[in-house]
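Worked Example 4.2. Consider the chain below.
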Amino acid sequence: QVQLAESGGGLVQAGGSLRLSCAASGLYFSWYNMGWFRQAPGKEREFVAAITWGGGTYYADSVKGRFTTSRDNVKNTAYLQMDSLKPEDTAVYYCAAVIKGASYLYADKNKYTYWGQGTQVTVSS
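Applying the procedure from the previous section yields the following structure tokens:
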């Protein structure tokens, strides 16, 4: 049974920082690309960041320079470090996983097989 569990969300003031964790189980973590997406009320789920099985990273323009994703293959955990947070970052954040392959499109939510239940991030102005 594959499970992804996000944690680390909460309420933070604009300019503050937060680190999200995504703990994976039931899969061979080292073979999986990990993505981060977010969804604000009334909006579509959008790509935030991704880290491939090989450690390559990708970021949405809106978070580039502020967010950093990483992974610890020993702990089977992916991370999203969020700095310089803005009110527009407020959303439910989800981690997602898909096994490595040639068809991987890091920003395409439809390419991911597994999803966590999400963690709320609220940034106050």
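The mean pLDDT is 97. The CA atoms of residues 36 and 95 lie 5 Å apart. Compare this with Example 4.1 before moving on.
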